[in-house]
Design goal:
- This protein is α+β, with helices and mostly antiparallel strands.
- The protein has three domains: 3-117, Beta Barrel (OB fold (Dihydrolipoamide Acetyltransferase, E2P)); 143-212, no CATH class; 276-477, Chloramphenicol Acetyltransferase.
- Helices cover 27% and strands 22% of the residues.
- It has ten helices and 20 strands.
- The chain has helices at residues 127-134, 143-151, 170-180, 194-203, 221-236, 259-274, 287-300, 309-323, 367-381, 456-471; strands at 3-6, 16-22, 29-30, 35-40, 45-49, 54-59, 66-68, 72-77, 86-87, 104-105, 277-285, 329-332, 335-338, 344-346, 348-350, 353-355, 358-359, 396-400, 419-433, 436-450.
- The strands form six sheets. Strands 11-20-19-18-14-17 form a six-stranded mixed β-sheet, covered by helices on one side. Strands 1-8-6-3 form a four-stranded antiparallel β-sheet, with no helix packed on it. Strands 5-4-2-7 form a four-stranded antiparallel β-sheet, with no helix packed on it.
- Helix 2 (143-151) packs parallel to helix 3 (170-180), helix 4 (194-203) packs parallel to helix 5 and helix 8 (309-323) crosses helix 9.
- It starts with a strand and ends in a 7-residue tail after the last helix.
- The model is unreliable at 90-130 and 181-188 (pLDDT under 50).
Length: 478
Amino acid sequence: MAVELRMLQMDQTMTKGKIGKWLVNEGDIVTEGQPLLEIETDKVVHEQESPAAGVIAQLLAEEGRDVPVNALLAIIAAPGEEVARVEVEPAAAQQTFGQASKPKLATQTSEKLAVEPSKPATAPLPRAAVQAAQSAAPPKASPAARQLAEKLAIDLTQVKASGPGGRILESDVQRYIDLRAPAPAESTRLKASPLARRLAKEHGIDLRAIAGSGPDGRIVRDDVLQASAAAAATLVAPTPPVLEAPAPQQATEVIPLSGIREIIAERMTMSVQTNASVTLHTEVDATAFVELREMLNAKLQAREVSLTYTDLLVKVVSNALQEHPRLNATLTEDGIHLLGEINIGVAVALEDGLVVPVMRNADKARLSDISVQVKSFAERARSNQLTPGELQGGTFTITNLGNFGIDAFTPIINPPECAILGVGRILKKPVVHNDEIVIRRMLTLSLTFDHRVVDGAPAAQFLQTVAGYIQDPYLLLV
């Protein structure tokens, strides 16, 4: 019997993947576990394998296209089996960003494809039977999501879940409304987010006079705020003289916002818009920290282990998280979840983006083990050899820009985590130490945290603990 190949969800934040390259053609014989295509996400290029042995009966996704999670990619038939071909809408007619195109079947109309060998036509199932089958296993959803769906007569089976265990949240229903449901009354011709509509009503702004800067021309919050500020300025500012508009600047190069760059842009924008982000900065005396690294490397030289500052910081942060578990948490619709494992993500810069491989149970690992693992992550990240499992499950992230000569910066939280630590360069400075002006090695740390999960004082205490381990790093060896 024929088998479907669908787009896998490789982590809980993934909503779509890009078809990088097909490794097979229609008519090819394949074995179970054989790589069939390359999937590009914001984190990794992953080879998706065949779920069964057979013959590639049909390929339904084009190379270079973004495909939603669970979308149908190919049909694998048994040898000698005849399978009805699936009719796919032309690219121009398919739905836009974030929406799954629904293939039209030659012999059936239900949204979920059930491929069967060709056989004599039979009478279609009664509508009541189809509805009964669809409702046999209702989707998991929060009470708020169900209430909103019932109020607006939305079928929850059409809504993509982002909650734990595939649970549909209220935000998932709202996203479905924003992207797929028609807007009410006079706004049917306008594309605007609910927040943009509310702000426009409060400020008396006509949405029809605003050009949207969001995806597909959608009006977002910043568009309304800029229009409101411009309207206020016209009430007090004199009419400026009419000047000839300068000629538009010609771009020397256009870099497409697609693939990993597009997905990073989406996730970072989502992080800034949904988190109540606050950043704390502190300068730390890292003289003893530097001395400890030099001493350990001299001792470990025979074992061919060389510790980096990032290796030591993974241990520092994991120890601090044990003392401040509120920073090792995530926020869901159910509440704040304090996480049992301490899994430290280490940001690795690539030529066209960055990835964050995860050091699992870092609080239980030895420094030498952390060093080996982090180096392996960096090497395999730059050759696209990381597995999806190595990029999932992070509870806290460290991003180090010290090698680039940066002193301090404002890191962006990596969802669904609630905090991230930015690390600058270690710099020699004249400072007051033991009531004398001396040269010490100073390091600036930047902690960005979600104020919805943790308040400023507990976050500052966590940063103070991190600073304490750096100032007196021999505590790491206790």
